[in-house]
Amino acid sequence: MRLSNLFTRTLKEAPADEVAKNAQLLIRAGFVYKEMAGAYAYLPLGLKVLENIKQIVREEMNAIHSNELIMTSLQRKEIWEKTGRWDDEVVDIWFKTKLKDETEVGLGWSHEEAIVEMLKQYVRSYKDLPISLYQFQTKMRNELRAKSGIMRGREFVMKDMYSLHASAEDLENYYNQAIEAYKRIYSRLGIGDDTYVTFASGGAFTKFSHEFQTITDAGEDVIYLHREKNIAINEEVIDDAVKELGISREELEPIKTAEVGNIFNFGTTKTDSMGLKFADQNDQQASIYMGSYGIGITRVMGVIAEKMSDDKGLIWPENIAPAKVYLVRIGDSENVVKHADELYQALEKQGIDVLYDDRDVRPGQKFADAELMGIPYRVTISERLEEAGQIELVTRGDGALRQLTQDELIAILN
What we know:
Layout: H1 21-28, E1 32-36, E2 39-42, H2 44-63, E3 67-68, E4 74-76, H3 77-81, E5 95-98, E6 104-107, H4 112-119, E7 131-140, E8 155-165, H5 168-188, E9 195-201, E10 208-215, E11 221-226, E12 231-234, H6 238-245, E13 253-267, H7 269-274, E14 277-279, E15 285-287, E16 289-296, H8 297-307, E17 309-310, E18 313-314, E19 325-329, H9 334-349, E20 354-357, H10 363-373, E21 377-381, H11 383-387, E22 391-395, E23 401-404, H12 406-413
Parallel strand pairs: 3-7, 9-12, 19-20, 19-21
Antiparallel strand pairs: 1-2, 4-6, 5-6, 7-8, 8-16, 9-10, 10-13, 11-12, 11-13, 13-16, 14-15, 17-18, 21-22, 22-23
Helix pairs in contact: 1-8, 2-5, 2-8
């Protein structure tokens, strides 16, 4: 993409009312636009990051044999009344509205009930199980306080997956597969070393659920970490968990974190409440076991922006950056323009995503924007470098500078 064709512009300062580091950087870099507290538009470069994150998640969900779909955001009141979760005293984050015919509906904040209701049409016998379904969807939650930039919003993109099983053992097996898939996701996103499977409250359904918590000073949670045993416990269940796990609270280190995912074993409670059964091998009606698995896609993007940045801007991992190369053209001589255009085309032909800064602005602004946007590699072509037969390559992460021939450059970038 040529920057001269991009409608967004970088900013020297973030809006005065934005205090979260992730949102400040993303707004300044032209990745997001703040509509209101807790609601952000994702601009072309920000959308590319989101799509790259989604693709990593998609690949890992497909690897554990889940089917992708997309459900409607409009939710029927009577479906959620079956489990009691339409009641504002049970779930206090609903956005509710009415259709023209006065039918009351809600805007989906999760989809367990909707998935179970839909599967009544498709599940009859044990031969139909197990089933695993996932989607990427914009969720709506009427949070009292929307803060922390895109790490906590009233509108956000989420990957939610739901699995249904004929036995508790089959659900447990799949649940463990999901844990391993989540570990691979966070590793591929570059935050695996700082993300812990964490014991958390299971609510009314089970004693414990599991969260995935990433260490960051911008987080809203506190986990207690036993580094030697690789055990992490959410602060809210600390007393119960230390008893269950047979460890001492004194052995645990409190650390500030952000939740980037969660998985939940509902057992048969959800499906029983909704009236979803199946015919077992003896043709007897039996209960279905259900798991729920979520990853906040936009929240993960915010956590990465918090953790992978410096005083110059963002530092995206290569596999989720909006482009691999930021190509800087310095000067407008025929020779420089020709070489820069040809290199842009050559890199694109190699399948290397490039942001080509062909704007008529000062070199210093181009370099600053490359760093602010966090593109992994900055490649520079100038009259001076042309005379030496060299191209300059700078790595965003460590600032390493090399002068190379075009063949050497392409070999490195490939």
